[in-house]
Amino acid sequence: MAKYQYPLEPLFGKIIGPFERFLRQTTAGGIVLMGMTLLTLIIASSPWGDAYRHLWETPVRIGIGLQNMEMPIHAWVNEGLMALFFLLVGLELKREILVGELASLRNAALPVAGAIGGMLVPAIIYFLFNPFGPTASGWGIPMATDIAFAVGILVLLAWRIPKNLIIFLTALAIADDLGAVLVIALFYTQTIDLKLLGLAVCLLCVLFLCNRGGIRHILPYAILGIFLWFTLLKSGIHATMSGVLLAFTIPARPTYTPQQFDEHLDKMSDAFRLSTGNIEGTNVPIDINNMYAAAESLEKASTAVQSPQQRMEHYLSPWVTFGVIPLFAMANAGLDLHSIPFGEIIFQPVTLGVIMGLVFGKFFGISSFAWLAVRLGLASLPSGVQWRHILGAAWLGGIGFTMSLFIAQLAFADTLSLFEQARLGIIIASLISALVGLAWLYFNIPKSADRGSLPHDN
User: What Å distances lie between residue 119 and 86, 347, 367, CA to CA?
Assistant: First the structure.
């Protein structure tokens, strides 16, 4: 009787690359975020709207013994859970800088130039509408692009556009996130407690020492990261910055090199085959010592060849994409559409500045700076990508939902009416940018003859 052949394909499925997995998750996350935002607007405008808003104001206390901390639920989401979002952003930034589209200066030049223009021009447009007074602090709101929304919509047209356009917009949105992080850290902070800030710096140094000391287990970084979050929260710097800082201390090098893993894999595969050489059929008992030891060694080796950064990003991504960001949308997108005097609010300087900045500022900023980078010889268009593709992606850059809402609640934390105006402007601008970008790419661009392998291809 022939030996039983273990079918690897049904067991392990198709091998999916990190970028392909990222795009699939981002697209699905964008769809979930759209649905959650729509549901939130419906609930907030319904007879249950008041109960919905009171729910997010419910105080929650966390503490041990006499030490405790109390914040409303929406504050735990915005300052606690969103630290996980910024941790994931930091991990993605680090990956792109080390091995991704931002690793090569030539490859990074076009998306980085587009991101810079997409931040400067919207901020200037907003400032023209709000040059003075309390509304001026909202200049950072239209600077951000929502990667889940923008890339999610672009992937819906993957059959019609070149693959490199998706890569361009993804790199642009990640570079844009870096700009937004710097803006938040430098300009949207409270009064700083220097003692606690010094303690945070010490914790950060310990984290870097753990990295340089070869510690590859995630747990020490997670524990120290919690203390870093707490000290930054109390120091006056926004606590979510702890996520980005922690991300850059997570080791990017695995315990095993690829060569070491390959040698170990051959050795353990031989041991595994020897331990099961005389066994036929599918009902193989797992208490055979040699077989179990070989399988366990293979499992440990497969973990050791992945860097802590890869593992953390892989584990964290679905929780942030399908948990943290939708919860953030529920906590911050709850406009009561029935009670809003649209005729008044839509013509307020904050609302107009946000709408004009996101819709037109993003489009002109991204497209003009990208054109300038190519014109000066600093960058070149990716293979298969034409200027009409870039213009379509520039329209989608005006979708600034998650990060824009986050900056708005920092800019207008003490003025609810201004936050309401900014929130309405973000929702309107994101909707306009999504529809215009979708229509532009659909009607102005024929099917690409050479579109490459796309995220949904089999």
Answer: 19, 23, 12
